[in-house]
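Friendly challenge for the regulars: who can give me the structure tokens for this chain first? No prize, just bragging rights.
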Amino acid sequence: MRIKSVCRALIAVTASLVALAGCSAAPGGAGRGGLEKTDIVIDAFPAIDSAGLFIAQQQGLFKAQGLNVTIKLAATSQTAIDGQLKGQFDITSADYVTYINNVLLNKAPLRIVAESSFLQPNVLTLLTKGGSEVKSVRQLQGKTVSVNAPNDIGTLLIDSLLADYSVPLNSVTFTSNVDFPHVGEYLAEGKVDAAFAPEPFVSLDGMAVGTTELADLDQGGTSDFPIQGIAVTRKWAQDNPHTLAAFERAYARGQEMAHTQRTAVEFALKQFLGMPPLAAALVSLPNFPVGVNSIRLQRLVDAMVRFGLLKQEYSGFKIKSVIAS
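First reply, four minutes later:
Bragging rights claimed.
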């Protein structure tokens, strides 16, 4: 009996030592010595969709995983991806339409590793200037609408809206490459009749030049629609599996905080996007999911085919093929 007791005690001690060794080797769930690289650069489109990323940086969540992260703000989703493919950025946060266009049309070896946002009310809108003669979506026929870039998420959402209101798609002229900070100016000067704009610019332009919301794009076929995500190149994921896993852990926590802590989002928007405190307090927020929902993202691919952003030959494309496992 005594021998059995001693054996059991030794086994218990050994198990405890193994557990302690595991904890000391992996602070925060990541073995710092096992990270392939600790300095990473992220290029993110400067919108509220990136709030989870900003929060992870502010709250030291990346540092807790042994990562030294630098966040740069991209001019457009395409410029972010262009830099990523040239090796300038390790990770990007951009809109899904641009990611999918690059994967299918440019054969870019990208992998989606996390979601950033999907639509909620009043986050992405069509704006008009105060007192505009355009009072309804149907009155956009024959009008000019600005978007940030050609054939991106804005084009897709507006096409879906026009279809819902039976407005012929070819009856509306798109003016592309109107940066969001200049949307209010374009509307006020009558350069365009309506403009695609996300938060925080919806709130900022309303306060600055009196723009009004013509339509909320979170409706009909694009209700709860996926907007922005996180991607790496296939080679980067293969070369840096432990670094990627550490990033995903920190980012997931940032997303959770963005989803549940409004004050954390406001603080992030003020620091990273320069939003005034009042605008940050009033801005409408998207949903900040954790992980990747392939069913939700497949809706985007199907809509791209439906509205001609992708040819019919891509109707069988499955988004799962570019989601990192």
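The CA atoms of residues 57 and 220 lie 35 Å apart. The first strand starts at residue 39 and ends at 44. Your move, everyone else.
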